[in-house]
Amino acid sequence: ARRKVNSVSKQKMKKIIVLTAMSLSGYVSAACPSSSTTIFSCTTSNNKIIQVCDAKKSISYTFGRTNQPELSISVPRNRASTYQWSGFGRNMNYTVNIPNGSTTYRVFSNIDKFDEYSGAGVEVEQNGNLLATVKCDESKPLINNIEGINLKPTE
After folding, report:
1. β-strand partners of 148
2. Could you tell me the end-to-end alpha-carbon distance of the chain, in angstroms, rounded to an integer?
3. Would the pLDDT of 19 be above 70?
4. Burial bucket for residue 95 (CB in 10 Å: 0-12, 13-18, 19+)
5. CA pair distance 120, 44, nearest whole angstrom
6. 112 bridge partner residues
7. How many CA atoms lie within 13 A of 16 on its CB side?
8. How far does Cα 50 stand from its chain's mean position?
9. pTM for the whole thing?
10. Which of 74, 96, 141, 149 has its CA 20 to 30 A from that of 81?
11. How far is CA 68 from the centre of its chain?
12. So what's the pLDDT on residue 155?
């Protein structure tokens, strides 16, 4: 009986590995261009992509379906900014802020050390007012390289 349990476990593991590979292979199509580095990428519950790419001289933000983005902007690197957790407090918060006129797209990652809550997504702010928050679907793959990014600090 023990062998049967082990073989079933191996079969389940193979299925998990195959499903993970399949989901990642579909996810790769939403990756940043090869000349860029992915700072952040996730999928919302509506299957829209939130993505930030670093092309060294510029930072780009894209939101929408993989092949039909609703918004895609690129700003010179010196216009983008970041907030990095100071090391104090329970909220480990990191952001990359991409300005577009009077609108700022704040891509965020947040972890509450005590409640073990984590969240990621984008906040849209216009003239200092929060217009919308779109969160990543936690059950879908997430690429998060915001921590330690070399951008000017958010004022």
Report:
1. none
2. 64
3. no
4. buried
5. 10
6. 91, 117
7. 6
8. 6
9. 0.77
10. 141
11. 18
12. 80
Angle CA(68)–CA(69)–CA(72) in degrees, nearest 5? 145
Please say if the pLDDT value at position 11 is more than 50: no
Nearest CA to 71 among 54, 41, 48?
Answer: 48
Side chain identity at residue 93, one-letter code: N
Residue by residue, DSSP assigns 5-55 as: HHHHHHHHHHHHHHHHHHHHHHHHTTSPPTTSEEEEEEEBTTS-EEEEEE-
In this prediction, residue 89 carries a pLDDT of: 82
Pair 142, 135: CB distance under 8 Å: no
Decide which of 29 and 67 is more confident. Answer: 67
Note whether 22 and 9 are within 8 A (CB): no
What mean pLDDT value characterizes the chain?
83
pLDDT (tens digit, 9 = 90+) per residue, 75-87? 999 999 999 998 8
Is the pLDDT confidence value at 33 over 70? yes
pLDDT at 92 over 70: yes
- Token pair listed for 69: 């983005």
Task: Judge whether 62 and 55 are in contact, CB under 8 Å.
Answer: no
Q: Which of 100, 152, 121, 150 is nearest to 41 (CA)?
A: 121
